[in-house]
Design brief:
- By secondary structure, the chain is α+β, with helices and mostly antiparallel strands.
- It has helices at residues 7-17, 37-44, 54-63, 69-86, 92-103, 115-134, 143-155, 162-168, 184-200, 206-223, 238-251, 254-267, 276-283, 294-298, 347-357, 359-362; strands at 177-178, 181-182, 322-330, 334-342, 364-369, 372-378, 381-382, 389-395, 398-399, 414-421.
- The strands form three sheets. A five-stranded mixed β-sheet has the order 4-3-10-8-9, covered by helices on one side. A three-stranded antiparallel β-sheet has the order 5-6-7, with helices on one face.
- A hairpin with a 2-residue loop joins strand 8 (389-395) and strand 9.
- Helix 5 packs parallel to helix 7 and helix 11 (238-251) packs antiparallel against helix 12.
- Residues 1-25 and 249-274 have low confidence and may be disordered.
- It binds cobalamin and 2-acetamido-2-deoxy-beta-D-glucopyranose (7 copies).
Length: 422
């Protein structure tokens, strides 16, 4: 469940890869590409590079122009298999990612093969819009995925209406926010989508102006989430935000560009853990907007020296020390217990222990997702996208920034799962 032990390495690596003075748009120079190997290895051997999640990896590899037949074939097969298995239950954003991955950097004569997938995406996107119509503006999934949808339809000749995009992607739309907080990940993905839409507009009319305003406004919101350590949002959103930042240099006016450079300059010394498949393209000067530009893809490093052997696994430290934490389930009522777990346990272990203590009060369900286990119900009370309800994770009253499978608990901590609205 835990594989975060590999990630601090990435932080160190970025630290050494990005010399501050040279970092104007934060790319790693070609001659230094070989130093990305550890990053690539971590990505390739990620436990989550299975099923649909392999799409993220394949997309990233292709985008940065890595030609390793063996690896490509392996990941490609994984993506194709999972599409076959669960095509109809793929969410719109998952399908969009699959299309991006399969078609990334391929010649356009391959487009026939994936034509039907683009058609399915058009349908899934319409279902999202319909759901918003009947459920108070709430999509089936979320705006991160709707942005992936629009980006993919735009890049691969799918049909969508600019009028709809203008209606739903206004920067004030509530779906850009979770609990009143602007979502950097969502905003960044929307900027990529809108940038593609903007480029596709032929005439210099009202549509162009409106979309440009949306982009500018979202970019401002993203940059206003810049933290003092240089991260935008948090460690996990920075990779996406970086893809946008590079875009900014070209698309937006001077003022923002300067701001952007400041961000980059302040970024490198920070101690970071990053979503690697997002950061890798950014480090090599690529964004998701490049996936249909074969000449851009071809300018990748070619054959990188990737070692296919598994990284040496770090043995989990089985500790004989026990710690005790407070655990609360908060609905309208409060359900409390004290739980004892081995030192080094994660949030999920605490929930499992609590469940053993009292099944009625503390039973729960989770699903596996690309970020690990995601809590969908507690006491049988299930999250609902139409009502914007979910199970929020907190420590000491503050939301945590990792999921139950990753968050390591401390002695005496007050953990809580709270029935909340976003
Ligand atoms: C939308 C969203 C939500 C929605 C999900 C419901 C909905 N309407 O779709 C809400 C607001 C409920 C939510 C909740 C949480 N989220 Co959230 N979320 C996202 C966001 C913006 C997009 C996810 C998505 O659709 N991706 C695209 C699809 C194709 O890929 P996917 O990964 O398979 O999508 C599913 C999972 O991502 C899952 N999911 C969403 N959030 C989280 C968080 C965790 C830890 C897990 C395991 C799964 C998960 O929901 C998606 C739809 O089913 C991502 C940002 C990102 N870069 O992905 C953050 C993100 C995944 N969330 C994050 C976090 C921290 C949380 C919370 C733990 C916050 C908290 N303190 O409670 C909770 C989850 C608690 C729980 N119940 O287990 C972090 C995860 C970081 C990490 N290291 O694990 C991210 C990366 C945001 C960030 N930059 O910090 N989230
Ligand atoms: C490559 O990395 C080395 C070591 O950090 C650095 O000195 C050199 O300037 C880098 N080359 C370029 C072109 O950035
Ligand atoms: C894009 O789609 C239109 C019809 O929707 C079609 O006429 C055109 O040939 C397509 N172009 C490409 C490059 O696939
Ligand atoms: C495609 O990539 C090439 C090389 O990077 C670049 O010069 C060109 O402007 C790109 N075209 C588009 C439409 O982005
Ligand atoms: C590739 O890496 C291996 C192991 O690190 C090394 O032995 C080999 O010489 C490298 N090959 C090239 C072409 O750099
Ligand atoms: C919580 O209390 C409110 C007001 O009494 C009620 O409307 C709501 O249904 C309750 N929620 C749950 C999950 O029990
Ligand atoms: C379990 O929790 C429920 C709800 O708080 C409570 O009514 C019940 O007595 C508890 N059972 C045990 C065995 O503690
Ligand atoms: C945990 O709960 C106990 C009551 O069982 C309480 O005395 C203690 O202060 C709580 N711990 C923290 C850190 O609040």
């Amino acid at each position: 469940m835990r594989q975060s032990h590999q990630l601090p390495l990435v932080g160190l690596l970025l630290f050494s890869l990005i010399p501050s003075q040279l970092c104007t748009i934060c790319e790693v120079s070609k001659e230094n590409y070989s130093r990305l190997n550890p990053l690539l290895n971590t990505m390739i051997h990620s436990k989550y590079a299975r099923g649909i999640q392999a799409a993220n990896v394949l997309l990233s590899l292709r985008l940065v122009g890595i030609q390793d037949q063996n690896l490509e074939q392996q990941v490609f097969q994984e993506v194709s298999d999972s599409v076959e298995k669960k095509r109809s239950d793929l969410t719109s954003g998952e399908l969009a990612l699959v299309i991006l991955a399969l078609r990334a950097c391929q010649n356009s004569d391959e487009s026939v093969t994936y034509f039907h997938l683009v058609n399915q995406l058009e349908e899934k996107f319409q279902k999202e819009i319909e759901n918003m119509g009947v459920h108070d503006g709430n999509p089936l999934t979320n705006y991160y995925q709707l942005s992936l949808d629009v980006l993919t339809l735009c890049l691969f000749n799918g049909s969508y209406s600019i009028t709809e995009v203008k209606k739903y992607f206004s920067p004030e739309n509530k779906n850009f926010y979770f609990g009143g907080q602007f979502s950097v990940d969502t905003g960044a993905m929307a900027v990529l989508a809108l940038t593609c839409v903007k480029r596709s507009i032929q005439n210099n009319g009202e549509d162009l102006q409106d979309i440009s305003h949306y982009i500018e406004s979202l970019v401002k919101k993203i940059l206003s989430e810049k933290k003092r350590n240089g991260l935008i949002g948090n460690t996990y959103s920075t990779g996406e935000a970086m893809q946008v930042s590079q875009r900014l240099t070209q698309e937006i006016g001077k003022g923002v560009t300067e701001e952007n450079n400041n961000f980059i300059l302040s970024f490198w010394p920070s101690k970071i853990l990053l979503s690697i498949s997002q950061i890798l393209p950014a480090l090599m000067g690529k964004t998701y907007l490049d996936v249909n530009n074969v000449s851009s893809c071809a300018s990748g490093p070619g054959h990188l020296n990737i070692s296919i052997h598994e990284p040496i696994p770090v043995e989990p430290t089985i500790s004989s020390t026990w710690i005790s934490v407070n655990y609360t389930v908060q609905i309208n009522e409060t359900f409390f217990t004290k739980v004892t777990v081995p030192k080094g346990s994660v949030f999920l272990n605490v929930m499992e222990e609590a469940q053993k203590i009292n099944q009625t009060a503390f039973r729960f369900k989770y699903v596996e997702s690309s970020w690990g286990p995601y809590i969908i119900s507690v006491q049988g009370l299930e999250e609902n996208h139409n009502d914007r309800t979910y199970w929020q994770l907190l420590s000491g009253g503050e939301p945590v920034t990792q999921g139950v499978g990753r968050y390591v608990v401390h002695n005496g901590e007050n953990l809580e799962v709270r029935w909340s609205k976003y």
